[in-house]
Structures are given as C-alpha cells and as structure tokens.
Specification:
Shape: globular
Number of helices: 10
CATH architecture of the largest domain: 2-Layer Sandwich
Bound molecules: adenosine monophosphate
CATH topology of the largest domain: D-amino Acid Aminotransferase, Chain A, domain 1
Largest sheet: 10 strands, antiparallel
Radius of gyration: 21 Å
Number of strands: 18
Distance between the termini: 13 Å
Order of helices and strands: EEHEEHEHHHEHEEEEEEEHEEHHEHEE
C-alpha cells in the first residue's frame, strides 16, 4: 500500500462545526457540468440528495441529480428557492457572480468558502495570497490592458518578470484560454490585443521539469487528507494525462503535501482542492489552485480507496474524511473531442475504466469523458 497522507495540522481558525448532514439531506451544486455530475453520483452513493443549479439546458449533472433548476445566475427568485431547498451549497466551477453567492450565503452555508472562490477567481489576488503565506509562484506584474498607457505598463512588466513570459487575463481563463506567450519584446503580434481590454497579469515563464498536482481535502473539523500527487501532461493548454505516482523525490512529495495544507488552513477551507504545481530544480512553484474537485484527480476513482468526489461530498456534508489510501498505479487520460469516436475499443481494453459525461454534442477541445487505466499495484518512486 502506498497511501496518500492525512495531516493532523490544527488550524487556529478551525471552526469545529458539528452540523453534519444526515442521509436524505440535500447538497446544492452550482454548475451542471461533468464535475457536478460526478459529485452528484458520489453523493447518491452515500445516501445524500443533490440539486443542481445551471443556466444551460440539459446539463450533464442534471441526468443524475435528484433535482435540477434551469435558471440564470441573476434570477433571484430561482436562486432563493434553490437555496431554501438544500442544506449546504457547493460549486463545480469558479465563475459564479458574486451577487448570486451573496443571496445564497444569506440562506445556507457555501462550502468551500466565498474567500477561497474570490482568491482563486483572480490570478493577481491568488498570487499575492500565495506569496503572502510564504509559497513560491512565477514572478508576476499586473497589466491593465485597457489603460491608455498599457503598452508602457507591459514594457515595465516585461522588465520586471523577464522573458519569455505569459500574458494572461486575471479572470475567466481556463485550459490555457485568455493567454499569450511573449518570447521577445517587440515581436510582431500585439499581445495586449488578445486581452480585449481585460485586466491582465504578466507571468514570468517557469522552466519546470514536470507539472504535478495534489488533490487534498479539509473537513469541517480542520482535518486534512491529501491524495498522492499526480504527474500531469498538457496538450494545447488542456490536461491530457495524469499519472500516479508522479516521478518526484520523497522530499518534493512531502513539500507538495505541506503546500496544499498551508493553502487549506490559510483559507479555513472545507472541501476538496486541486493545487497545480511546477516541479523545478529550485523546488515546487505553485501555478494555481482550484477550489473544487479537479480534472487531475479523476485517477482516484480507479486508484484509491475513496475518490475525490466522495471525499468532497463528505467534507461539505460535515462528515469525517477518509484516509485516501492509494492501492494502484494509474494513468488517467482525458477524452477530448474526437477521442470518443472509438469508445467501444477503449471499453474492451483490460484494466481500462471508461467514464463518459453524457454530452451529446462533440466539439473540438470539449471534454467528453476520461479513461483510467490501472497500471498495477501501488508502487512508490
Ligand atoms: P493555466 O491556465 O494558468 O494553468 O496554464 C495552462 C498551462 O500553461 C499550465 O498547465 C502550464 O503548462 C502552462 N503555463 C501557465 N503558466 C505558466 C508559467 N508561468 N510558466 C510556465 N508554464 C506555464
């Protein structure tokens, strides 16, 4: 056995809540995508109901949740009815309008907290937060691309962080969207144009050996449980594979756990978090964190005694966390766009577990499902 790690680090701000949900009570999920779907499936497995709130029609999570509200995030009446009908609210994506959260929070607890969401929604605030708790990030500089002085601000930023660098929108970016790489000053294309007037941040390029992530959870009692770090490969900015265990040395592995714990405690967090890290010759550098279940944690459904979704449900429901012991080496591969055209071949492979999200429309770059392949019993590197 090669377990994850349960850290017993007491948090000074730990609220020690005791209001655990009973089977039959309901978790509200903001967002109806595949992550919401997998949260709903896990909740059902342990006798908890789910109610999904999603503006789009026929969301993947709607097929498995007990109830779905189809309404916009500015529909106050629908939000109030949703909040009044559930016992706790969680979310499966970050870009939820603050007004919607204000209304919900006045009626029912939101887990993870508003602060975790607010910090992670803004790359600048996130980096300042991470540096503030002593964690290393890429060097960065804010760039207001709408300013009449944007070109000179960008020049200053390039001098500050060095080149190559990546100009990113501060908000609403995901899977490499809203990003431009700048190799050298004065290159022909104007990187500011790609920001379309949005507030941006210039990040120095981190020369990493590999990308790893750690999925961790913190319960309402302040207990922390970390899954084994995974090694991630991206293609065109989208996660392609996660392999566990990551090829990192024991000291780096320990450091990944400590980083996750530091973030969880500083945010007085409740739920699962995904922390993306760059492994460099100078140690681990935090890229970003997602205050939710994470694509790079899908391997847990085939490789550990509990998966990230059930761990998240347990945390937000106020249940004790499970020690996330890993029993297998696993590789998870995302099925993106046309990758699903030959799913039956995958379904016939030995040791491969297919998971499709029920999306009827296949589009290039769209995450349609994933496959987990068990490589053998858990080994450590
Ligand atoms: P992000 O959306 O910020 O997670 O970026 C998507 C991917 O771009 C990351 O997983 C990395 O592969 C790469 N990337 C982003 N920021 C940096 C950086 N500062 N240095 C090196 N690579 C980066």
């Amino acid at each position: 056995m090669n377990g994850g790690r349960r850290l017993r680090i007491p948090s000074p701000k730990c609220p020690m809540k005791t209001d655990a949900l009973a089977p039959g009570q309901t978790i509200g999920i903001l967002g109806g995508g595949q992550l919401g779907r997998m949260i709903a499936m896990s909740a059902a497995r342990i006798g908890l109901r789910t109610h999904v709130f999603e503006p789009g029609a026929m969301p993947p999570a709607g097929e498995v949740a007990g109830m779905t509200t189809t309404a916009d995030y500015c529909d106050r009446e629908a939000l109030a009815a949703f909040a009044d009908g559930v016992d706790v609210v969680t979310y499966e994506f970050e870009n939820i309008p603050a007004e919607a959260l204000d209304l919900i929070e006045a009626r029912v607890p939101i887990r993870p907290s508003r602060r975790a969401l607010a910090v992670s929604q803004d790359r600048l605030r996130e980096k300042r937060f991470l540096n503030g708790i002593g964690l290393a990030t890429a060097p960065f500089h804010p760039v207001d691309s709408a300013s009449p002085h944007a070109a000179s601000i960008l020049k200053q930023a390039m001098e500050a962080v060095g080149l190559p660098a990546i100009l990113k929108t501060r908000r609403l970016g995901y899977d490499g969207k809203g990003q431009v790489r700048i190799e050298e000053a004065g290159c022909s294309a104007d990187p500011l144009a790609a920001m379309a007037g949005a507030e941006a941040i210039l990040e120095g390029f981190v020369a990493f050996e590999q990308e790893v992530s750690v999925i961790a959870a913190r319960g309402t009692d302040g207990r922390i449980a970390c899954f084994e770090p995974g090694e991630n490969v991206h293609k065109y900015g989208i996660l392609r594979t996660t392999r566990v265990p990551a090829r990192i040395d024991p000291g780096t592995r320990e450091c990944a756990f400590e980083i996750a714990a530091a973030i969880l405690n500083a945010l007085d967090y409740c739920g699962v978090i995904g922390v993306e890290l760059f492994d460099t010759t100078d140690g681990l550098v935090v890229n970003e964190f997602a205050p939710r279940v994470h694509n790079s944690g899908h391997w847990t459904e085939a490789g550990a005694v509990i998966d990230q979704f059930e761990q998240h449900v347990r945390a937000v429901a106020g249940w004790p966390l499970v020690d996330p012991i890993r029993h297998s080496d696993v590789e998870m591969t995302n099925l993106i766009g046309e990758d699903v055209s030959d799913v039956l071949a995958i379904a016939c492979e030995d040791g491969a577990r297919l998971h499709l999200y029920g999306k009827t429309e296949m589009r290039a770059g769209r995450k349609m499902g994933h496959v987990t392949r068990v490589l053998g019993p858990a080994t450590s590197l």
